[in-house]
Amino acid sequence: KSQALNDSDVLFVESRVRTLENDVKALSAQLIDSQNELAVIREARDKYRDLYTRFAKRHEELMVRLNTAEREREAAARDRERLQDFLKTCCDENNEDAYSLGVKLARSRETLR
């Protein structure tokens, strides 16, 4: 009887070893799949990090251009106001409308050429 018990123990252990070997194979396959997924995720992360870096740089460049354009627009608006004030003063001093004064200016330019 003790020999039969030993044989059954051996069969049980062999069965258990096969089960564990199968588990190891399954876990190894899952590990390989996970490593592949991780590689894909890392690649995507790096790609999007690069895209974000380029986007952030482009955004900064556009903000600088926008601020420059806004300052230039404000300066042009101030210049326009000064020119309108100057034109109004010239018209008032010469008792003429802007069109007549413009015609005289154009003629004087022609004369200077």
Description:
The chain has one domain. It is built from two helices and no strands. The model has no long low-confidence stretch (mean pLDDT 90). With 113 residues, the protein is mostly helical.
User: How many DSSP-defined strands?
Assistant: 0
Number of helices: 2
Percentage of residues in DSSP E strands: under 5%
> Helix- and strand-based class?
mainly alpha
Report the biggest beta sheet as strand number plus sense, adding barrel if it closes: none
Overall 3D shape: rod-shaped
Oligomer: single chain
Helix content: over 70%
| Overall average pLDDT | 90
Keywords: Coiled coil
Coiled coil: 10-86
Key traits:
mainly alpha; 113 residues; 96% helix; 2 helices; coiled coil; rod-shaped
Topology diagram in text:
Elements lengths: L1 H93 L3 H15 L1
Short description:
This protein is mainly α and 113 residues long.
